[in-house]
Amino acid sequence: MIAALRKELLLQWRTRAQFMAVFVFGASALLLFSFAVGPNAEILRQFSAGFMWLGLLLSSTLTLAESFHAEMENRALEGLLLLPVNPRTIYYGKAIANWLQLVLLGFALVPVMVILYDAGTTKLPQLALVIMLGTAGLSAPGTLYAAMTSQVRSRQTLLPLLLFPLIVPALLASVKLTSLIILGDPMGQLSAWMKLLTAFDAIYWSLCGLLFDRVVEE
Amino acid sequence: MIRGVAQFAIEAESIARRYGRRWALADVSFRLAPGRVMMVAGRNGSGKSTLLRVLATAIRPDRGEARVAGFDVVHEREDVRRMSALLSHYSYLYDALTAKENLDVLRNSGQTPALLERVGLAQRAGDPVNTFSAGMRKRLSFARVLLQQPRIVFFDEPYGQLDPEGFALVDQVIGELKESGATVLVATHQVEHVTGYADCSITLEAGRVIATAGALE
What we know:
The complex is a heterodimer of chains A (about 220) and B (about 220). With about 220 residues, chain A is an all-alpha fold.
């Protein structure tokens, strides 16, 4: 799996200009949300967590859809599948690489959120953990569906249609946790939501790994 | 029978494969003894590539059974893949990666520089594949196949896009594979050229075997 992950990271590094484009897209989405709400600082701060995760979710579909582009160019994925390796190795290599990219994107969007919505927090390690767990919930099913839609012409449209309903629980938990970190947690709900998100991540990562070979093998 | 050391390197029994309504392969049967070089001839669309892709487990047959090195191509795919390699129409290369990195995806071994030298790409080892010509891509795909050290090799139009030096390289490699006891299937239009070293051949037309020559078994 190290070789598969190394290959994915190399491919991401070679196409790093695309990451910048995705970040600008996410930051623009956050800016547009602030325009939609208007100059009400309190409302902006209150909904900042939801806006950030929506921005991240919309950006992630671009990243995930493109993650199989290189595999389709010269049928490289078929070439990998014809090697005597378990297809799950290929899946987990790609899913981890996608996750790392989404974590980086999440970290990059936090300062944008803080500036636009005045939603600063001192609990940065906790926020980082939530971003890591939340993006894990996006990347595992996102990678599976990206594989599924990679050979379809309208994959940019189809991927969100398939992905969004599936990741609602992880998205809800991520928004709630981020909100608790920014606005405070007087009822001590953080731990329970964190467990819920971790449980969904475990389900996504194990189930999607099991299903991958059925998706890619003819 | 010891698995992987089968009596026949390849056994195909009435295999058929269709794309939509059209049968690309229809009822193809043959047996090939280990260590033979077999040419698969036929016109465009006769089913040569489909046959090789079924045997290499890239696609499944819709009917019939096939065994490669004694392993079933549907139910024992991983074992078939361990024993075989396919040089396809598709290069299976990553354009954004260099020649060396493309080989390292398969196996990060000390053999890579020697293999690149062998296929004439040593000077371009650090260049991304998207700067390569079609012939250079073919040479790299060749190195990719050799790196897998297969016992059964499927070459689909190995001479396509190659210059005369490339032709000689393919001949040399197939000769060495034969000497080492590997079984080789070559699907090609270069019939006169391959007839020189092939032990046997089958000719396909409309997905059916219409002629065989030489000793397959």
